[in-house]
């Protein structure tokens, strides 16, 4: 059971990255579902007034009030249900599109070795059938939300009228929960078997169609038909077994509902007859609230069962999406950020060079122009590493250097500060690679770790030289000439 629950959690966790893109529409949809459930349950609150004051006391105003309110609630409820349904469809369709797009993109990046070992029919099932099943999971989840809210509202209304009676008749709830849990596990296993069987059938069809000439040439039609019928019969047995699980779950929930209603009629009717501060309006309202819980509970159970059948498709789809992922997602994100950080470094050092050109110190300017080229090269090396590992390079906007330089040594000190910051970013990548046993990335960044030691030392040495010589015009001239001699050398990294 723990294994199954873990699989469900992992499946939901994998879908979260797609759902995050639509967090605002999802929030609005849930809010609409809550309001829609409240509106659809509101007529129950009018029943007590209708019976106790309108009918029993023969007050026409209360009858008209209840009738008018119900009509208004019906109109508002219809509008809310419409938009809730539309939102659910838009969100599920958008997520479906994103998943299918990612699958297609992923297929284009896979090498031929994968296709030589994978059965095309099973692959087609993962590409076509499984995303449809995921779409169903999302839609059924959204459709189940208002059902759950309605149950909660009706239950709360019943509790507010008579909590003892309400809790007493819910003695069957633990039995219902146990039954649902039992059959959801069976349906999940059955759903997984069904998808595997469909994959085998699709593979068989693909093999038969592509090899039809060979089949006819060797008169193998009967063997092929027999093999296909065996696979199709297996799928039929699984489908029947799934239907039986669904039927048993529905039958038990149906029986428990009638038992619950019978208990309510017996206990509630007795209290009305005995006059224990329990009016006919109270009785009818609780009856209505409990009865109104049945349909959404039944629907929620049905939807939950359908989700249990289709949830294995999530894992099957992500088998493709995660196929041959050479880099951990966190590592990929950090590498992308590092590329942009290195380009910013080049941008920053060019700004230093601009400043020194304005001061007439072409040697200092040359030093940072060479440094800018090196930072650019660092960015390109990491970019190449990302692409070589089959991941996508994403560029961010480069921040505009806005530093004000209050002296000729200001860029020197900012350079040391910046190099220490870059060292921190590289150390973070190295640690993250170590945490996931990504030794290839660690080996790649060995060079950068050593390079940063040199970068920080050069920046610190330049500050010291300026302090020793730069305050004197002759010393500054000599230091400027020294820096003018720095030449660019393209870095090489062995991976």
Q: What's the CATH topology label of the largest domain?
A: ABC transporter transmembrane region fold
How many separate domains make up the residues? Answer: 2
Q: Unreliable runs, pLDDT <50, ≥5 residues? A: 1-6
Which sequence of SSEs, written as H and E, runs from N to C? HHHHHHHHHHHHHHHH
CATH architectural grouping of the largest domain: Up-down Bundle
Strands, total number = 0
Instruction: Let me know the largest β-sheet.
Output: none
- The CATH class name of the largest domain reads Mainly Alpha
Kindly report the average pLDDT value: 77
Number of helices: 16
Coarse morphology: flat
Structural class: mainly alpha
Q: Determine Rg (CA atoms, Å).
A: 35 Å
Strand fraction equals under 5%
Distance between the termini: 45 Å
Q: What's the name of the CATH homologous superfamily of the largest domain?
A: ABC transporter type 1, transmembrane domain
Helix content: over 70%
Short description:
The protein contains 16 helices and no strands.
Description of the structure:
With 495 residues, this protein is mainly alpha-helical. It is built from 16 helices and no strands. α12 runs antiparallel to α13 (362-388). The two termini are 45 Å apart.
Task: Give me some keywords for this one.
16 helices; ABC transporter transmembrane region fold; mainly alpha; disordered N terminus; Ferritin; 495 residues; flat
Furnish the topology, listing elements before pairings.
Blueprint: H1 2-19, H2 23-55, H3 60-109, H4 112-117, H5 120-161, H6 163-169, H7 173-210, H8 212-217, H9 221-274, H10 280-310, H11 312-321, H12 329-358, H13 362-388, H14 410-435, H15 439-470, H16 473-484
Helix pairs in contact: 1-11, 2-3, 2-5, 2-10, 3-5, 5-6, 5-7, 5-10, 5-11, 7-9, 7-10, 9-10, 12-13, 12-14, 13-16, 14-15, 15-16
């Amino acid at each position: 059971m723990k294994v199954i629950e873990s699989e469900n959690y992992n499946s939901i966790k994998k879908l979260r990255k797609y759902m995050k893109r639509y967090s605002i529409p999802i929030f609005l949809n849930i809010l609409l579902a809550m309001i829609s459930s409240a509106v659809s349950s509101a007529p129950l609150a009018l029943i007590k007034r209708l019976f106790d004051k309108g009918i029993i006391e023969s007050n026409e105003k209360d009858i008209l009030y209840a009738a008018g309110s119900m009509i208004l609630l019906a109109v508002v409820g219809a509008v809310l249900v419409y938009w809730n349904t539309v939102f659910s469809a838009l969100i599920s369709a958008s997520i479906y599109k994103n998943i299918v797009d990612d699958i297609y993109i992923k297929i284009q990046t896979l090498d031929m070795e994968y296709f030589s070992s994978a059965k095309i029919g099973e692959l087609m099932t993962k590409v076509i059938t499984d995303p449809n099943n995921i779409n169903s999971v999302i839609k059924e989840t959204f459709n189940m939300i208002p059902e759950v809210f309605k149950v909660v509202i009706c239950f709360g209304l019943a509790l507010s009228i008579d909590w003892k009676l309400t809790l007493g008749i819910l003695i069957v709830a633990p039995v219902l929960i146990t039954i649902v849990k039992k059959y959801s596990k069976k349906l999940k296993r059955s759903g997984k078997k069904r998808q595997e069987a469909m994959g085998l059938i699709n593979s068989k069809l693909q093999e038969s169609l592509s090899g039809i000439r060979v089949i006819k040439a060797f008169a193998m039609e009967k063997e092929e038909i027999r093999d296909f019928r065996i696979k199709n019969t297996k799928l039929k047995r699984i489908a029947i077994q799934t239907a039986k699980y669904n039927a048993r779950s529905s039958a038990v929930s149906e029986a428990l509902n009638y038992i619950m209603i019978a208990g309510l009629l017996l206990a509630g009717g007795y209290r009305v007859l005995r006059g224990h501060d329990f009016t006919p309006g109270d009785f009818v309202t609780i009856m209505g609230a409990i009865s109104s819980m049945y349909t959404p509970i039944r629907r929620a159970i049905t939807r939950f069962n359908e989700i249990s059948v289709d949830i294995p498709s999530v894992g099957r789809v992500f088998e493709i999406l995660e196929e041959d992922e050479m880099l951990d997602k966190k590592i990929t994100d950090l590498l992308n950020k590092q590329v942009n950080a290195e380009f910013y470094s080049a941008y920053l050092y060019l700004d230093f060079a601009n400043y020194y050109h304005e001061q007439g110190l072409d040697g200092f300017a040359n030093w940072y122009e060479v440094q800018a080229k090196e930072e650019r090269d660092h960015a390109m090396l990491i970019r190449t590493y990302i692409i070589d590992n089959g991941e996508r390079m994403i560029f961010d906007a480069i921040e505009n250097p806005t530093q004000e330089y209050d002296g000729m040594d200001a860029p020197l000190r900012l350079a040391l500060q910046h190099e220490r910051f870059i060292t921190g970013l590289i150390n973070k990548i190295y640690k993250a690679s170590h945490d996931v046993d990504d030794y290839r990335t660690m080996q790649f960044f060995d060079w950068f770790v050593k390079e940063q030691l040199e970068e920080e030392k050069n920046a610190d040495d330049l500050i010291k030289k300026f302090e020793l010589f730069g305050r004197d015009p002759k010393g500054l001239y000599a230091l400027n000439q020294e820096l003018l001699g720095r030449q660019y050398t393209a870095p090489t990294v062995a991976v």
